[in-house]
Each structure stands twice: as C-alpha cells, then as structure tokens.
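Appendix B, Record 12. Input sequence as logged:
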Amino acid sequence: MTDNENIVKILEACGVSLYDTEVTSEFDRRIFRIYITSKEGITLDKCAHVSRILSPIFDVEPPLEGEYLLEISSPGIERKLTKPEHYLSSIGDKIKIKLNNKEKIIATLDAFNGDNIVIILDNNEKMTIALSDIEKARTYFEW
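Logged structural output:
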C-alpha cells in the first residue's frame, strides 16, 4: 500500500502539493480522492497529468485494498480545514466554523497556534476558539 509520504514526493515531482486525501463512497463505488494545490492554481490538465503519473504506481502499490476509483481534484475555493497546515495557509481568509454545540460562525481567520484559532468577527472583535470545540471548518467565499 502506498503511504501519504510517497504520494507527497510524487506530487512534488509533478509540481503540485498534497492538500488532503479522502476515501468516500458514491453510487456504491469507493473513491480515493486526492486534493492537490499549487501556487499557479489547479487546472483539469494538471489533474489529468497527476492521474496519469499516479495510476500505474497505484496499480502496483494500491492506496486501498479492494476496488476503488482514483480522483484528482483541487480542494476548491471553499476548502475543508482539517490539518494544522490548512489553518496556517488560510490565515487572513474568511472561514465558516460549525462548533460542537452546533453554533455557526463566519469570520476572518487571524491566527493559529496549534490548539486554538483566533478569528475576527464582523464587529472587529477577536475570539479564540479551541480546535477541540470545532466540529467542522472550511474557508468561506461570499458569492
């Protein structure tokens, strides 16, 4: 089985960075999804290129046991924030947070220190939130 460390090295050789991976099921099919980023942005051609590089490697060293579909994608404009590096790279961005108590907050991410985030609310008030109090967080784009 291919581990994330090997995937990271392969992606870096392709000129992109690993944002995240997920295993999901859609229409009774398992999907191994790899989210990639780059400073230049992610295009369909870049996703196809990465897929062409990874597919033969995964044929020899599959990332999952059993059948699955491989998908390469951008994390999108509204990206899930699940890892420390996600929060660090999103400082200054608007984020949407759902707390464990189901409260929802939209604010600007001001700081991240490993255990907490600091956000700036619309009224310019700063608030510190423990990561352990966050059920879900993602970047937020006002359309």
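The helical segments are 4-13, 44-60, 84-89.
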